[in-house]
Amino acid sequence: MTMLNVQGEMLKAQGNAQDEMLKAQDNARDEMMNDQSAERAPSAELKAIVEALIFASPEPLTPRMLFKLLADEPKEDVSAAIQALKNDYDARPGLQFVEVAGGYQIVTRPELHEWVRRLFHERSTQKLTVQSLETLAVIAYKQPITALEIGEIRGVNTSGVLATLLERHLVKIVGRKNVVGRPFLYATTKEFLIRFGLNDLGDLPKIEDMAEALGFDPPARLIEQTPAEEMLPLEEEPDESGKVETVEEVEK
């Protein structure tokens, strides 16, 4: 074997050794990153507990409540479990993980609504009328607002419709307007956010879009901008037992 051949073999062996070293370093780095990812990933048990709590809750479960219920777990792990569930439900065909009214819910997908409605067919009789939807839209976009102002925008008396919306817990009395007579001011509730799949009022669509989706023509005055009202707190009156009870009646 010539000197050149020997040198070539030595260089080749040296190159192979360097390749093996680099490969070993890459493998070690990958293993370390996988170990770190495994440490950050929530345990299957914690994820299952978070899923069960959200599913069983009758209303959206807030992060604050989850942290309180799982006080023994680091908040970072609970947050990681929530995120992992979100990712899992992205691939679920029938259910989805949503953020609504400041919390989390596991619900059926909107495109399956008609099928689910068949299961609860009796609830179809409880649908809101067009008048109720229109009044609800006025309150949602103009809140806080008085019954008189709602009537002026819609052009009709709204006392009966307001009673229905209060009964359904879609609106509530939040105070009194600081004018003569101090009429009640109405605003939407958490139940309103849940019913319409909104996380907060900032998620409200344009007035025209909501009116089209709900099937009514929005009154012209509903589209006008209204300055914020000066509001007085609700008076609280003691009942016969001496407890304080908030007045919640519809203006006549």
Class by alpha and beta content: alpha+beta
Widest sheet, order of strands: 4-3-5
Our Rg estimate from Cα atoms comes to 30 Å
Q: What's the total count of β strands? A: 7
SSE arrangement, N to C: HHHHEEHHHHEEHHHEEE
Question: Can you describe what's shown?
Answer:
The protein has helices at residues 3-40, 44-56, 63-69, 75-90, 113-119, 130-142, 147-154, 159-167, 190-195, 207-214, 220-223; strands at 95-100, 103-108, 171-177, 184-188, 231-232, 236-238, 244-246. It has 252 residues and is of the alpha+beta class. It has two domains: 44-112, Arc Repressor Mutant, subunit A; 127-235, Arc Repressor Mutant, subunit A (Orthogonal Bundle), CATH 1.10.10. A three-stranded antiparallel β-sheet has the order 4-3-5. The longest helix has 38 residues, at 3-40. The protein is elongated and about 80 Å long.
List keywords for this structure.
Arc Repressor Mutant, subunit A; 252 residues; two-stranded antiparallel ribbon; alpha+beta
